[in-house]
Amino acid sequence: MTKHSRAYDSRGRQAQADRSRDATLDIARKQFLANGYAATTMVSIAADAGVAVDTVHKAFGGKVGLARAIFERGLAGAGMISAPQRSDDMQNIERDPRAVVQAWGMFSTEVAPLVAPIYLLIREAAAVDPDMAALLADSQQERRERMRHNARTLADRGHLRQGVTVESATDVLWTYSSPELYELLVMHCGWDSARYGRFLGDALAAALLDLPEKSEPTWSSAEL
């Protein structure tokens, strides 16, 4: 077997493993949301995935690991390139702060539907399961660190309005990007994604920015 064929076989095996992993996560997510965390078993997930229970354990380490993997996959968004990476790429191009925060609102319309339902499941299970409580704390901290990164970008460019510190901006970004806000406005009040995204962009601009005159963004929504 040549080096080329071995490399091809390796890529093929990895692609198959990735597809199997995603399929297992899809099944676990469906069962968690339909039946609840406590009632869902590794046996039922493995059975629907058509794999051995040991295979799921080795890949994810149990139900908590599955919940974590589903949550982290949601944070990456639905594109081939992760939402955080696309957000950073957009920030490197776009210099209008209003356009930047409006783009963050658009990213939220992609990520929130994937993250919010599983986050709410984690939060509910955390009340009685210490491992899920630890996962909840980790997920909150991870999202907060991302929001601090965004706040620092605005601060470094001099876009935060007077009196708004990086920590205060982090608080605002963390709150407006929260699954709880998505739960209230979209899941309970029935807002559609477009309205939700516009609201986030406008609210963040009003709360954080020393607003300049409106200008046309240099990025395209198709690039997100």
UniProtKB/TrEMBL annotation:
DNA-binding region per UniProt: 41-60
One Pfam family recorded for the sequence: TetR_N
One MF annotation (Gene Ontology) recorded for this entry: transcription cis-regulatory region binding
Name of the protein: TetR/AcrR family transcriptional regulator
Annotated source species: Cryobacterium algoritolerans
Annotated ranges, domain HTH tetR-type: 18-78
Keywords: DNA-binding, Transcription, Transcription regulation
Highest rank taxon of the organism: Bacteria
Annotated segments matching region Disordered: 1-22
PROSITE patterns: HTH_TETR_2
